[in-house]
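Order emerges. One example.
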Amino acid sequence: MIYQFPELYQEQYQHYRDDLYFYTQLAQDYGSPVLELGAGTGRVSLHLGKSGFEVLGLELSPQMLGLGRQRLREAGLEHSVRLEPGDMRTFDLRETYPLIIAPFNALMHLYTLKDQDAAFGCIRRHLKPDGLFAFDLYNPNFVNLEQLTRLDEWADVGGDNSELFIYQSHDHDKQVLTSKYYLDSVDESGYLTRKTAVLTQRYYMRFELERALIQAGFSHLRFFGEFDRSPYSKDAGHLIGLVKP
């Protein structure tokens, strides 16, 4: 998995800021503490901490969690942000939250219906009666599949004399996208080394997701296609949800 290489992940997405204002505005509306699921290396949690909010971020990958905690210490945010090991399917914090978030495709790591039901059930139990669960997902865009593509926008990932490539495949029956990353680096002697990583994501169709959320006990559901809250459509960049009990 790509999460075994947290430094690569961090370099790749450190400048991604499309969602930060969206989740910060929600924190301003609903207050602290915020519970983040799939916190990764702390990109969103640390931003919320810097904005003055208390945050608990749960992350399943030990490697990602380790780098996230390092970044937390470097930012001096230990007083407002905690990053802890946790599985969104089974967590039990014995506390409820006014705002629970699952940013940047975190829910796409729920690969089975059982996983989805377990996670949504946990989220519902940990949400205050007047609280909000917010998430964003990749809206499937099936282009450039089954071909090796150089990621020019991430030319600096891995340092100088490095190139990052991706090969994506789609299993329509399982609704799964598999992304294989190849990071090629050339040292001073001209020796080529390659690191590989795989990212597997199960995507959602809108009404499938709506049914799962209703079954988990959510009744007020709103979906958007972009972080400016424009309407959802099949051509939108995202599937963004704001749901309440």
